[in-house]
Amino acid sequence: MRTALCDRFGIDYPIFVFTPSEKVAAAVSRAGGLGVLGCVRFNDAADLDAVLDWMDANTDGRPYGVDVVMPAKIPTEGSAVDIDKLIPAGHRDFVAKTLADLGVPPLPADEDRNDGVLGWLHSVARSHVEVALRHPIKLIANALGSPPIDVIEQVHAAGVPVAALAGSAKHALAHVRNGVDIIVAQGHEAGGHTGEIGSMVLWPEIVDAVGDTPVLAAGGIGTGRQVAAGLALGAQGVWMGSAFLTAAEYDLGVRTAAGTTVVQEAMLAATSADTVRRRIYTGKPARLLKSRWTDAWDADNAPEPLPMPLQNILVSEAHQRMSEGTDPTAVAMPVGQIVGRMNEIRPVAEIMAELVAGFEQATRRLDDIRDR
């Protein structure tokens, strides 16, 4: 499974794993891939700094990266406008009523509330980049395409390559013109922010469009056979996320008596048909696990989702309440269609080993076909 990206990053396998959990990211890196820590959950740059200190101490010297959420165009935010006041009262009333209808309990009185994941704000994302560059990171990825040119130049000056997600060949070419080093070609099947084009069509389109720029195949990858498909279509590696949400090391959310989180329980019970692509999570189209929460937003009486970042600020505490509840039918979680194969809790090392073994089996099968 070795490609040029393995030599470039000093990894054993060209498997890049995005995760909001530092424990999963570190375990991926220790297992020979490149763990990429999602930064958007960190409102305070000092908290991110502390977590990256932990990553430095727990990756056994293996490389890791970070993922930020930064639009290429700098939005108006902050001082001149109180963002919280831009959220209509009717939207707040709808969220409150929906949580009551779903039976989602309130948070404990002494628990801090998520007033909004400020990592969606441009200024906070810039602080994430500044903090990350104080650590020995090997990659900065942007979930919203190309970062601003000055940020790309800042990262390059530190000797760190930049990756950016693309849902079309047009977007991928724009990323290359902006100086992005690696394109993450994310197909429609993916969890979170994703476009309209399916992976099997998108991957070779982007590979052919960007020439020598390395491409990571993303969207619907959860087995070694799918890794082999991505490389067969011209990618130099794969970008994964959803398949590691049921990793044993995943440490975000309250554990149930069974030792899993309520979101993990919902995923374990889901099929590949149990996702929807909606704007209700962030304000931009994102694939989520289908639940009674998503059903409520699909109802005739539901308001239209707000633009980013207002929608995320609106629903942030609701997400916190549902993730700390006990009802797996009332959750909000980005996940791809590969959720239908996520049927058990397993350590990261086991998931990685199965990906490698499945890749080897798939390529041997192709060798047998070729030799007939």
TrEMBL record:
Keyword entries, A-Z: Flavoprotein, FMN, Monooxygenase, Oxidoreductase
One Pfam short name: NMO
Coiled coil start-end: none
Keyword hit for Flavoprotein: yes
Matches recorded under InterPro entries: Aldolase_TIM, NMO
Alphabetical list of SUPFAM superfamilies matching this protein: Inosine monophosphate dehydrogenase (IMPDH)
Alphabetized GO MF terms: nitronate monooxygenase activity
Keyword Flavoprotein in annotation: yes
Domain of life: Bacteria
Designated name of the protein: Monooxygenase
Source organism: Mycolicibacterium fallax
